[in-house]
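Entry for the shared binder. Reason: the reviewer on the internal report wants the predicted structure included alongside the sequence.
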Amino acid sequence: MIYLLGKWYAKYTDLLLQSIKVIAILVFLLFTYNVYAIELIDLSNVQTIEGLGRKLQYFKDEQHRFSAFEIINLNQNSWNNIDEEVPNFGFDDSSFWLQLKLKNSSSETIDKYITIDYPLLDHVDLFVYQDRTLVNEIKSGDNLKFDQRPIKNRNFIFPIKISANQQITVLLNIKSEGAIQVPISMLDPVEFDNVNSLDLIIQSLFIGAMFAVAIYNFILFIFIRESSYIYYVAYILSYCLFHLTIRGLSFRLIWPNGIGLNEKMLGISLCAIICFAILFSIKFLNLKYVHKACYFILLFIFCTAFTLFISLFFVHYSFVIQTLVILIITGSVIIFGAGISQWLKGNQSAKIYSIAWAAFWIGASLNGLNKFGFLPRTFFTEYATLIGTIIEVFLLSLALAERINAEKRNNLQLKEIALKHEKKALEIQVKANEELEERVQSRTRDLEKAMNELSVVNVELNNLRTVDSLTQIKNRAFFDETIYKEWRRASRSDVSLSLVIVDIDFFKKINDTYGHLAGDEALKQIAQILSLAINRSSDTLARYGGEEFIIILPHTNYDGAMKLAEKIRLTCEQSVLRSRNAEFSVTVSIGVSSVEDVLEKELEISDLIDSADKALYRSKENGRNQVNGEII
């Protein structure tokens, strides 16, 4: 019995082992089929294939020793499947071969375009084989002149033709110092033209919008002289250079013969983006004073990026780009975190700033997920980075405006506080005077003399309050009081009233050239010239601020004010100003405004001042040393 059981066990053990072997062979065959099989694409009923990655196989030639003929004759087991819609081999010095098999089962010849939407590849060569015979070869890449491309486009476009009832094998050989990404698609020529035209329109609108924002903020910088604006303009222009380079537009439009220049310009633009974004953020968020740790980290990133910019010309390109990517990610996290921190502290401009950066990174992330096949290819995902960037630059412009307005509000608050203290001081002074007056009757002559002396002191204090200490003419405070009185008088009597604002041209240049003492002398002598030009006691001359003077002309119409302004301009132009160690001449720009019917037009004092100020700026913008005016 034991013998029979042993014999039965041995027999069925052999059968089990043989079954396992058969199953293992089948699994192996199935596995090798999945690894080495390549899909044969029939183009007879296919117009467009976006994201060809999974239909390709690749072979990595680390030593660059294989020719196309050797590759086409490789054993199929040497090829590897690709599991991504967009093949991405990263930074790798190897030569990569991609294989694609196509057939045409129709009775007509089929024309297609193979497109690679990544313009930064150094070498992209295409070989077409039919029955292992080379029938077409096209060389491309940004290491060749743009005119050598078969289709003049920012991307790499390869036209292929498949005859009726034929089968071909397409080989692509790709080499590059930078990252090797292959977003490959196949399009019908007509559809390609439509897609390309739409893309060109969108790219043009994007660059136009970016330049418009840059010009607008540069003009604001010229008038406001706030360094945040010039940093922001430089950041926008750096991003435009980066966008044009990475999209292949600069190679097509700016340096079509600049072989190898794309890589250098990509590195330069990335360095510039990092440096100017950091300078803008430090200034905008005031990080030097409110967040020392972020300030020093960003300063280190700035110095590193600047060093990489210099080393770009003698250090390996891939090392520089990879380091810059790390700096961009690190810097962006710190900048965004600093913005959020200021936002939580109640800074409204930091709120807009943070939303702007968030819009950019959301757009870039959506575009990246689209490129790597995680999101469907739609108009929004395809141009998400552009949309996010446009939102970012417009929001940052708003953030700058909000920051300037916040500073103005703070200044107004400080002025209100100062006015309150001044009012309180005046009230105290009035109260003291009243107390003194109550005691006059009970005081002796000595006290009366003391009161007289106190009155003299009060007059002197009042003169100090209303007289400019440098030019000895009336100051801004006196002007504010007088213009209010004259405006009320003009309103009651229905008479004309004119205002003249005089600004010394290039006054800063006088200080820089001859020194601040010479600048002070210039202000004094110009004040004397203006005083002599005013003949009526009712006219008021005051120093308006800095190198600006203002004249109130009651009962003076527009023509009279313009004649006086021209007389002043000519006198200043012909006068020679003297200081202790120099003689020089200056010119002035003048703005004039007049009003002749205050009640009927329902105007305010600010309308008159604003009109004269605008006229002054027209004089400056039109070349200075002139008079401009208007009737309101």
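Summary line for the report: The chain has 19 helices and 20 strands.
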